[in-house]
Give the backbone structure.
Amino acid sequence: MSLHYPESKQILEKIKGAQRIVLNVHRKPDPDTVGSSLALSYYIQSLGKETTLVCPNKIGEEYGFLKQATKIKTVSLSTFDFSPYDLFIILDSSSWHMVADSHNFTPPSLPTIIIDHHKTNNLEVEIKLLDIKAPAVGEIVYNLLKDIGADIDADTATALFTAIAGDTVYFKHTPHPAQTFEIATKLLEKGARQDLYIQYMTSNHPLSFIKCLGKMLEHMEYDAEHKFVYAAMPFEEYETYGKPSGVKDAVANEFLQAVKDAEFGVAILEGEKDRLFVSLRSKGKVDVSTIALHFGGGGHKVAAGFSIKGEFMHSVEKILSHIRTYNS
Ligand SMILES: [Mn+2]
């Protein structure tokens, strides 16, 4: 049987040669990084090896339906003691900032493997498995586990299903749908708990989240000349809703591509005073990762993001005027 990835053999050898393995869950953890890290960790544990999962931010309680999600440690990567470990595996990160949530992170001198799907990935490590065609790292890990002949049990299936469902926005964004739906079907046959995904990941928001989402949608405007929509929320307003997390992502994932004649959309949230967090989504013609790169962020052709510092109105204008020059 031919391998899906030539790197699979090398990765298996590295894992077999290691005893204590540390896996990274990226900043602002999402279902893809959490699910794919857990799935790979279950496999490594099945070989009788120790794993530790580290994330620079806290993992939301909603992930509790995934086995061992509550064991993921929240640590400062910059001061974390890597010395007990002999292998570092990073999933779903395209930059050291994403790995550590810090611009001062010095990577440890450990053998390091990166498994990622971001077009903007610029990390140089020993082994890099980058598949920019994969809609989620969960799909890459699935192919990797197949390549190395790993058994996919129900917990692994649930973790990988969660990863793929998260990044594809429940199978809406699938560049190669036949492959992705086939993998999803196989995972369901292995016992993936799709019902728990729905229960905890999509039907579990506080009312303040929904109201804040509604307010942000009310702010949405259409730029007919440059064919894009944008919605921006200042910090003062966000604060009145209790700063619910995930609002910008929900606007981006569900509504930025929903408007007739708009080619792409921008959601801007002043999540902290004078710090704006921006998500971009495209219907496919416009490559929004180049806009994100311009502002020091990254991502994919159809989904990207960045953050900038500055006064709210001034920063919003700066973002919009760049986009208008870019898309004209
Ligand atoms: Mn991802």
In short: The CA atoms of residues 3 and 187 lie 19 Å apart. The chain has a mean pLDDT of 96.
